[in-house]
Specification:
The complex is a heterodimer of chains A (308) and B (351).
Chain A (H helix, E strand, L loop, with lengths): L1 H15 L13 H10 L10 E3 L5 H6 L5 H7 L33 H16 L5 E6 L6 H10 L8 E7 L2 E2 L2 E2 L11 H4 L4 E6 L3 H18 L3 E6 L21 H11 L5 H23 L19
Parallel strand pairs in A: 1-2, 2-3, 3-7, 6-7
Antiparallel strand pairs in A: 4-5
Helix pairs in contact in A: 1-10, 2-8, 5-6
Chain B lengths: L3 H15 L4 E4 L19 E3 L4 H13 L4 E4 L10 H13 L9 E6 L14 H4 L6 E3 L4 H11 L6 E6 L18 H8 L27 E4 L4 E5 L3 H13 L5 E5 L2 E3 L3 H11 L2 E8 L4 H13 L8 E5 L9 H7 L3 H13 L3
Parallel strand pairs in B: 1-2, 1-3, 3-4, 4-6, 5-6, 8-9, 8-11, 11-12
Antiparallel strand pairs in B: 5-10, 7-9
Helix pairs in contact in B: 1-5, 7-11
Classes of the chains: A alpha/beta (308), B alpha/beta (351).
Chain lengths: 308, 351
């Protein structure tokens, strides 16, 4: 969680210092996203979990074991950016080796695609599942309804965990002014789905609830709709300033209080953790600063896939 | 000879048997109907989807990402427009992730006028589709080309859009599909579903042979010396008929079936225009920002000094729709008479 927070704060700093054009990311979703990454069955192909993620998910990638330098490279849009070769915004991960489907800027399309990987996994058998995540604002799009319909076709229910991280905002628009459903998770009930709304700011609760939900999907090969209430600690993106929001719950502060109260870690030890990640990620950022941008002539690469 | 709908069915059967096609799906694609044009009857991997075009394209993308080989159908291209950002996404996925993933999926959709389909069953999609990079886009005008292009599509590593001219889907070809029995009635008995109860029916597939039409290769359907006509889809056979009619007037027209819109066979167009000095592009999509306009632009830029007359485009009128009544449809998209007159005028045009 701390690594992810430090990474995101470094990305914001890079944006401010002119080492990137745009920042968008996930500070405030670490508690939930780390738990998700820890519970994913990592690897390539149908026997492993597919993640159709969204752009606030750096913590999931780090929890899976990803080196944070990739995110720094994408921020700096260097040729070495492992997710897009300098083509895409920060937080737009892609890693075929781990079934991480390319993250895109549209907020809803992943919900339309995810039933496809889940259908392939349903046929294949085993315990690999599909996980799709998005924000609350994106559930207003038709693709969310598509996901509910296609995941619950009678006799063809899919092994898919449908996640909504609910941060109460769509850029500057409050969720409560746009959607009348009491809980987004309730929409799954009409489709006969298991559903749950959880405190996504609590890493332990998130872990336990995700473990249950993922266990159900893995074993029963049926869909589960999970809504996790989270925070958005630096606003929507750099377009809205990326300033710290002090009125929302900070999952790291809360968790640190608990760890201290239970005598698991002392304040000094926790400060040390933060210092270590800050230094390590600062060093990686320095390394990335001098890496070259992609060649102009590279625009024609990968318009089409070569035969594999 | 097989109709284009039968040829598509045969190609998909070959592809599910030999090319690893895992899913042929869309609205009414599976049993009992097998597609509103019967193009998917009796296929073992065919299944019915919810009535949700975005779901169909999205699911095809997910299947492709998961290593399957889906062939999705949008029942009429008039209903594909709400999927355009997913088509864009399918086309940009490989590029956006710098080659990490690829999306080997095929989408088929009937296009164009000719069945009195009024406002929502007559639209074309070539102009819009050729604005979306990252796809290969084909449009056959004969059953054998439909077979060959589909076999290529089902082996490609990229998204492929197959536009099926609905006016030609029921037309029989002049060439046999490799492996097709010579007698139409025999073929029909083998692979056409019976009327009434089909629950126990199973097709008897002929022993089909592979035959591919490569992307980016046009077909010179007719040789000529006075002008070149480049067309595809419904207007292609009309262009050939027009060329035949003009022969009596001493006009010799060369006709090229483009077949593949992206990539397309510029080499074939260039050679022909260098020979004739006159070129008419014919298609039926609306004429403003039409694919034919791109071809006209390229002709002007690259072949200007070879030309004896301005390159011309004959396309659909820029109207919100194609009206149902016969005179309305006839007046909205190119018909035989329009093509013949446009060719005659171009052949005779003098500075």
């Amino acid at each position: 969680m701390v690594e992810a927070r430090v990474l995101e704060e470094r990305l914001i700093q890079m944006y401010r210092q002119g080492h990137g054009y745009f920042w968008i990311g996930g500070p405030g979703e670490e508690a939930f996203n780390v738990a998700l990454g820890l519970l994913m069955k990592k690897g390539q192909g149908l026997d492993h979990d597919y993640l159709h993620g969204h752009y606030r998910q750096s913590a999931t990638l780090l929890a899976l074991g990803e080196d944070p330098i990739g995110a720094l490279r994408q921020m700096k849009n260097t040729a070495s950016d492992p997710y897009s070769g300098g083509r895409n915004f920060a937080g737009h991960f892609s890693k075929r080796e781990w079934n991480i489907v390319p993250i895109t800027s549209p907020i809803e399309v992943q919900y339309a695609m995810a039933p496809g990987t889940a259908l392939a996994q349903k046929r294949h058998g085993g315990d690999g599942i599909t996980i799709v995540t998005g924000g609350d604002a994106g559930t207003a799009e038709g693709d969310f309804a598509t996901c509910l319909v296609w995941s619950s076709r009678p006799g063809n229910e899919l092994p898919i965990l449908i996640v909504v991280t609910h941060n109460q905002w769509g850029i500057s628009t409050a969720a409560a002014t746009q959607q009348g459903a009491k809980a987004i998770a309730d929409r799954g009930k009409a489709f006969g789905m298991q559903t749950r709304t959880i405190d996504g700011n609590d890493p332990i609760a998130s872990y336990l609830e995700l473990q249950k939900a993922m266990g159900y999907v893995r074993k029963e090969r049926r869909p589960f709709l999970l809504e996790a209430n989270v925070s958005r600690l630096y606003g929507h993106s750099s377009a809205s300033g990326a300033n710290f929001v002090n009125v929302e719950q900070d999952c790291i502060v809360e968790f640190e209080k608990k760890l201290e109260a239970h005598g698991v870690l002392t304040r000094a030890e926790m400060d040390q953790v933060r210092t270590r990640w800050t230094e390590e990620i600062a060093a990686k950022a320095r390394q990335v600063r001098d890496e070259p941008l992609p060649e102009a002539s590279s625009i024609w690469k990968h318009v089409y896939a070569e035969d594999r | 000879m097989a109709s284009m709908a039968q040829a598509i069915r045969l190609a998909l059967h070959y592809a599910e048997e030999h090319l690893g096609v895992t899913d042929v799906f869309g609205e009414d694609v599976g049993a009992p109907l097998g597609g509103v044009f019967t193009a998917t009857q009796g296929l073992k991997t065919a299944w019915n989807s919810p009535l949700d075009e975005r779901g169909i394209i999205g699911c095809a993308m997910g299947l492709a990402l998961a290593g399957q080989r889906p062939v999705a159908e949008i029942q009429f291209c008039d209903y594909i427009f709400n999927t355009i950002d997913l088509l864009k996404l399918a086309g940009n996925t490989t590029w956006a992730c710098n080659g990490d993933w690829n999306v080997p999926m095929v989408v088929r959709t009937p296009v164009g006028s000719g069945i009195r389909g009024s406002i929502y069953h007559s639209h074309s999609f070539d102009a819009t589709m050729t604005h979306i990079p990252g796809w290969k886009i084909v449009i056959p005008s004969t059953p054998l080309d439909a077979y060959g292009l589909l076999l290529s599509a089902c082996q490609d590593q990229n998204p492929v859009m197959v536009l099926e001219p609905k006016a030609l889907l029921r037309m029989k070809g002049e060439e046999l599909i490799p492996g097709e029995p010579g007698d139409d009635r025999v073929l029909s008995k083998m692979i056409d579903a019976p009327l009434g109860d089909r629950s126990k029916w199973k097709p008897q597939w002929p022993e089909l042979q592979p035959y591919t039409v490569p992307f980016g290769k046009g077909k010179r359907v007719r040789e000529g010396t006075d002008l070149t006509v480049v067309s595809y889809g419904r207007t292609l056979p009309l262009s050939v008929k027009a060329a035949q009619a003009l022969e009596g007037d001493g006009i010799s027209a060369e006709v090229i079936d483009l077949r593949s819109l992206w990539p397309y066979d510029w080499e074939m167009i260039r050679e022909s225009v260098k020979k004739t000095g006159r070129v008419l592009y014919v298609n039926e999509d609306t004429e403003v920002t039409n694919f034919g306009e791109h071809l006209v632009r390229r002709t002007v830029e690259e072949l200007f000094y070879e030309l004896l007359a301005p390159p011309r485009l004959l396309a659909g009128k820029f109207l919100p729709g194609i009206g149902l009544a016969d005179p309305l449809e006839m007046a909205s998209v190119p018909q035989l008479g329009d093509i013949t007159e446009a060719m005659r005028a171009l052949a005779r045009e003098q500075p």
